[in-house]
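Supplementary Note 2. Why include the ligand at all?

Several targets in our set were suspected to adopt different conformations when bound, so apo predictions alone were not considered sufficient. For every target with a known small-molecule partner we therefore ran a joint prediction. The input for FE2/S2 (inorganic) cluster is given below.
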Amino acid sequence: MNLAFSEEALALSKALMKRYPEGKHKSALIPILHIAQAEFNGWLSSDAMDYVASIIGIKPIEVYEVASFYSMFNMQPVGKCSLEVCHTGPCAINGAESLISYLENKLNIKLGQTTADGMFTLKAVECLGSCGSAPMLQCGVNYYENLTNEKADELINKLTSENRLQSYTDIK
Amino acid sequence: MSRKILLEHIDVPGINTFDTYRKMGGYRSVEKALKTMSPDDVVEEVKKSGMRGRGGAGFPTGMKWSFLAKPVGVPRYLVCNADESEPGTFKDRYLMEKIPHALIEGMITSSYALGANTSYIYIRGEYFYVLRILEKAIAEAYANGFLGKNILGSGYDLDLYVHPGAGAYICGEETALLESLEGKRGNPRVKPPFPAIAGLYACPTVVNNVETIAAIAPIVNMGGDEYAKIGIGRSTGTKLISASGHINNPGIYEIELGLPVEEFIYSDKYCGGIKNGKKLKAVVAGGSSVPILPANLILKTANNEERLMSYESLSDGGFVSGTMLGSGGFVVYDEDSCIVRNTWNFARFYHHESCGQCSPCREGTGWMEKVLHRIEYGHGKLSDIDLLVEVSKKIEGNTICPLGDAAAWPVASAIRHFREEFEWHIKEATLSQTRNFGLLAAHEALVK
Ligand SMILES: Cc1cc2nc3c(=O)[nH]c(=O)nc-3n(C[C@H](O)[C@H](O)[C@H](O)COP(=O)(O)O)c2cc1C
Ligand code: SF4
Ligand code: FES
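The joint prediction is reproduced in token form.
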């Protein structure tokens, strides 16, 4: 295994484990998996999960079964920017479906695919708690709400020029 | 009926900071409780308030607290449910983002009442930016002596942490949440034992919604009896409603329970009426899990009484002609909405979110999604409608957790109230691909 966290990520993980009672530090697994995804290109390879298991001191299988259960953990490589459009009822009746078609055409990919340059992945996700601001999408830590085609264009331009991994945890 | 308690200071600049929040009277409930009340006194006030849990099930909070087991030498936990994943619901996010200290204050006062010395806020992973806001507020509370050791010199210690989930609606179910908080898959537990006896790390635990916990501070400040005077009947207090769909003013509204539904939909103070001057077709009043009601039944009960925003009035008529207040996720559908498509959409949601432990839920939600998909896309058979009803009945009541019921009710109610629309979709398979069914004749009689 040749993967390792940065010093800060390792220190943060160790601090997270202390938030739970003696012997219950497995509780920190989900928070640490989020860090792992941010550290390792936005997805959890088996090496990444084995590494997380070694930090917490649990069996790799305990990490696999958790990682595969939750939709925010990517078990396959993804683009630097994962555009996660909510397509649940309240958003669906207020423009989510046409936003998805617009993005599919613009990026020339279908839902679930990643652009050839590895920049964008397009996903449909379930209700993100932003139903009054439909249509909306999440990319990394940010919510983009009340979207129009023009706003979507601007967002794509902005993300393209930032050209970095947008991870859920990277708010500073 | 426009009394604001939780959102009273929402527009005060800087209300997200400790100093401003404190200046506006924040953290008084902590001082009052820790300095002048015993933990049981606090529980007593909450009981008197009659406040019912705001997470969806509406169970009286004071009663829930009084069930908490108190074995000597065993820690107790308070866990705040900030998973907020019920489609149509976005109030907890708003509250935490705008007035994070309202939740922190409620957590401290509630933890004191329950005798918890470590408490957690379990927040859905997608709300990471809100998690940062909460962590900042928590740090401020520590710095000002409201968290940590010997709070306000009372001898009471409390540590408070925020814990992210990672995308799973089922982790809003309280025992799935506890599993997830223990670092496991979010599989609901078989009950009993209930969390009050064996919850987090098998210790006695109370799980409460964000809004429930935030309301504890005003209850302690004004006293349970005063709080109970707000609202109507057994629906005491105010409630945050998340309004979305085809309305002019989507957003979060704090209402006094008992507000007429019609006023809520049409008044400019609230939803502001239907967008683009259209007519109202249907409402999902309490999040995607509650039965959908057609316009005539959401505005008036089957007895032709004005329908109110309260636990009792919304459920008047049971599931034949009523629904539930649920989490307060109020989704409005205009005349052009396709009920079949919306029902399919919700069925897909529940199928996606089923944890897969029980076969009626795992298989049944899959079946409902598949059958609704074929009706929506013009390949349905008339017998499919009864098939859907049958599948929903096989799920309801036969599962480990209420997600099964939550999946069954939207389908059963859509068919109950909009059967003609389902039939039309099947009989007019080609036409239904190019236009919507519109309003039922009965609805066209409505004035608005
Ligand atoms: C499938 C499912 C999802 C739920 N999601 C939530 C949720 O997101 N937030 C919440 O507070 N309660 C949710 N609940 C209700 C909780 O199980 C629990 O009743 C609630 O957190 C108790 O808090 P309260 O008494 O303050 O309402 C859900 C229940 C089920 C069955
Ligand atoms: S009802 Fe569904 S979500 Fe609940 S435990 Fe059973 S399979 Fe899981
Ligand atoms: S339905 Fe899209 S955010 Fe709730």
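The longest helix of chain A spans residues 149-162. The CA atoms of residues 99 and 149 of chain A lie 7 Å apart. Comparable summaries for the other entries are listed in the accompanying table.
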